[in-house]
Amino acid sequence: KHVATSFIVASFSCISTLTFLEGLTLNAIFSKMFGGGKARTEQLCLTSWFSNWNCQQRERFLFTLASQISGPSEEDLLLGMTGMGLAENDGPEMFDCQLKLVTSWWRRWSPQERSQFLQSLAVSWPEVGDQLRGRGML
Q: What is the CB neighbour count within 10 angstroms for residue 126?
């Protein structure tokens, strides 16, 4: 039986819960298409976000990654207080939610998966690769 399908994925945050043809999840489909598993799907999602971030958001992302690699500084801890509801605002911005996901994903990724992601960023965005090398992250 031949079934032709096409799909557009607007948000990857629900990939593991969406079910598609014959019991396959989108995560399994992406895994077969692009190789890897859950971490690879997360990396594809993150790469998509990164491509849409502005310069300040990209810089904050790289700062966040650097703190994940080297451990948080006192300044990081103070900045983190804004995410705990100690600063007055209308709620978290999408970017802040994305950064929270990134940090939780980063902690779960193996050293090989982390390295693979950093390498792919450096290849796709050479100026980011230069920054990663300059920070000793690559």
A: 10
Report the predicted TM-score, pTM, of the whole model to 2 decimal places: 0.62
Tokens standing for residue 28:
């399994």
Mean pLDDT of successive 10-residue stretches along the chain, which has 138 residues: 33 35 47 66 94 93 87 60 56 87 93 93 92 88
How many whole angstroms separate alpha carbon 21 and alpha carbon 4? 11
137 contacts: CB under 8 Å, gap ≥ 6: 65, 66, 69, 118
Calpha distance 72→67 (Å, rounded): 5
Question: Can you say how many angstroms the Cα of residue 86 is from the centroid of all Cα atoms in its chain?
Answer: 25
Q: How far apart are the first and last CA of the chain?
A: 48
